[in-house]
């Protein structure tokens, strides 16, 4: 499970790792999105700084590296360019599969926590 953001400085620069994004309603309808209190760029930055995003990048990189190492560049079958292209394609598939599995695990944990909370109330 991903670690919860504590709001404390996690590294150099003193930046806070917040993941909560609040949407504030506005009385005006329409507009460019900046007038209603929701800033998409701010939300995107907070998403990128979340522990889950960092963990997903690490999972994807590890799976891609493992696929590249498993495939190897010394195996026969085609020119060097074809082998390299095939290895990169397999690494991408492995990374996507690993991220999918990790997100599935996170969603399962969220569902379990939600049902545990709902069961305690009723």
How would you characterize the overall build of this protein?
The chain contains 3 helices and no strands. It is mainly alpha-helical and 122 residues long. It has 2 domains: 1-49, no CATH class; 51-122. The two termini are 26 Å apart. The model is unreliable at 7-16 and 24-31 (pLDDT under 50).
Question: Tally of extended strands?
Answer: 0
Largest sheet: none
Give the structural class.
mainly alpha
The domain count comes to 2
Rg (C-alpha, Å):
21 Å
- The helix/strand series, from N terminus to C terminus, equals HHH
- By DSSP (H or I, 4+ residues per run), the number of helices equals 3
The fraction of residues in strands falls at under 5%
Kindly report how far apart the N and C termini lie.
26 Å
List low-confidence stretches: 7-16, 24-31
Tell me the overall shape: elongated
Helicity level, as a percent range? 55-70%
Task: Report the average pLDDT across residues.
Answer: 75
Task: Briefly say what this structure is.
The protein is mostly helical and 122 residues long.
Keywords:
single chain; 122 residues; mainly alpha; 3 helices
Task: Show the helix and strand layout.
Layout: H1 40-48, H2 51-71, H3 80-121
Helix pairs in contact: 2-3
